[in-house]
Amino acid sequence: MSHDHDHDNELDPFAARVRALETILTQKGLIDPAAIDVIVDTYETKIGPRNGARVVAKAWNDPDYAGWLKRDATAAIASLGYTGRQGEHIQAVFNTEETHNLVVCTLCSCYPWSVLGLPPVWYKAPPYRSRAVIDPRGVLEEFGLILPAEKKIRVWDSTAELRYLVVPMRPKGTEGWSEEQLAGLVSRDAMIGTALAKEPEGEPA
């Protein structure tokens, strides 16, 4: 399964119209596709996921907040100002030593935009949507994540009514780190479940 190419033939009608408009504007020389790609990448991998990273970092540092996040993620996340379209109802699922969580939307591409930004192309691709349920361990290995055979993998299927946020395990060696420093270890993929939180490279600055 490749994660790097577009799936234009799998676009929904609205996305297809957007793509057609982009093509026309590009042909007329009114927009630069490279500039658009940079903007999309910024929102997809930098600005958007920072919200979720802050949620995870706060949960790591604040047991009371972590408990609230487990009980009512929607309210806990909203308390940090992260609300809106595609994020009205969210459930946080916590990775443990025994269980790793993975999120997929088998029917379309339901995704918590308010905490993760734009969904990656591969999340919307049929191969991921089908195989994440059938062979989650194999899919994770294709992302470079090889888990111990004894670790259980639980797959959560997002819907229009409920979306999920994976809270990865806190890396060892981060005791005493601030929430801002911890957030730097949390990637979008870790909050979907296709990666782990980054390991610290040394003492935080």
Distance between the termini: 38 Å
The Rg value, from CA coordinates, equals: 18 Å
Largest sheet geometry: 2 strands, parallel
Side-by-side strand order of the widest sheet: 1-4
Q: Helices and strands: which structural class?
A: mainly alpha
Low-confidence runs: 1-9
Task: Let me know the average pLDDT.
Answer: 86
Q: Quaternary status of these chains?
A: single chain
Determine the number of helices (DSSP H or I, runs of at least 4 residues). 10
Spell the H/E element sequence.
Answer: HHHHEEHHHHEEHH
Strand segment count: 4
Proportion of helical residues:
40-55%
Q: β content, as a range? A: 5-15%
Shape: globular
Protein model, in words:
- With 205 residues, the protein is mainly alpha-helical.
- Helix content is 45%, strand content 11%.
- It has ten helices and four strands; from the N terminus they run ααααββααααββαα.
- The chain is globular.
- The model is unreliable at 1-9 (pLDDT under 50).
Short description:
The protein has 205 residues and is mainly α.
Give keywords.
disordered N terminus; 205 residues; mainly alpha; two-stranded parallel ribbon; 10 helices
Please specify the SSE layout and strand pairing.
Blueprint: H1 13-27, H2 33-61, H3 63-71, H4 73-78, E1 90-94, E2 99-104, H5 113-116, H6 121-124, H7 126-134, H8 136-142, E3 152-157, E4 163-167, H9 179-183, H10 188-192
Parallel strand pairs: 1-4, 2-3
Helix pairs in contact: 2-3, 7-8
